[in-house]
Structures are given as C-alpha cells and as structure tokens.
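Hey, quick one: can you model this chain's 3D structure?
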Amino acid sequence: MDATPRWALPLLYAGQAQKEVFHNEALALVDALLHGVAESADLAAPPAAPAIGGCWIVAAAASGEWSGRTGMVACWTEGGWRFVAPRAGLSLQIADRGHALFHDGTAWRASTIRVDGLYLNDDRVVGERMAAIPDVGGGGVIDLEARLTISAILTALRTHGLIES
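Sure thing. Here's the predicted structure for all 165 residues.
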C-alpha cells in the first residue's frame, strides 16, 4: 500500500530506519479523521466485514475488539482496528443519522444543524421552510382578514418551532 485508503495520502516506504512505522500510523489516523465520516455511533461491537477506511464511534457497552473503547473513534485499516480518543471540538458526520456529532470534551453531542432544522439543546427551534403567507387583499372585512393573516403567521412560527404550540 503506498497511500492511505480514504484520502490517498502518501506513505513512506520501508528502509528508512523505522521512521515509516510512526509516520504511516500518523497518516492513517489523519486519513480517518480529516473531514471525518463515521458509519454509525450506535454499534457496541465491531461490524463483521468492515471496509478499509471505515470508521465508527464506539457505543456504550462495547464488546469484542472494541471492549473498553466506548466513545472512541474506531477505524478499520489494513493493519486492523485503530482507535482515536476524541478531543473537544472533534466533529464527525454520522452516515446513518444524516447529521454530525461533535465531542464537547466529555461526551458526543448531536449537531445543532440537521437536515430537518436548527436545534438548541436537542429542541428544534427552526424547521423546514414553509410556503409564504399570502398578502392580505381586499379590505371589505378587515377584522376577518387580519385574524386569518395573524393565524397564518402563528401557524408558521409554531411549525418552524420558533414559538410553543
């Protein structure tokens, strides 16, 4: 192998006074974490046939080769499993969730930006875009039109999660 599996970073060749061992190990880990994507954060046991370059966040109650590695990033390489202890600020896109997780220095947390909206403390505060509220027309029955428009505004705000339902 002359390049890492995910980002094709070049590896040193043997015969350089063992420097290649450390350099290649570092490149394998950089390759796993640079613009990182984890397949899942919900597996406690290693998958049966992982692809080279595949990574997972080890779930609680880890077993098998992942035993004792809860919360770590597990990456499958040609040399077997490589584990990285997360640090505050590490962010990985999670393929089976459709959004990122980030490490706050203590635990993995869900990203505030997800495909279905913006979240604060896991509460959705902004949802998907809705159709525009139509302009008020006419003027024959101002009170009725005003009430319908205000109702449409409140419905939009509630749907987006900006106000309580």
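One thing worth noting: The longest helix spans residues 142-159.
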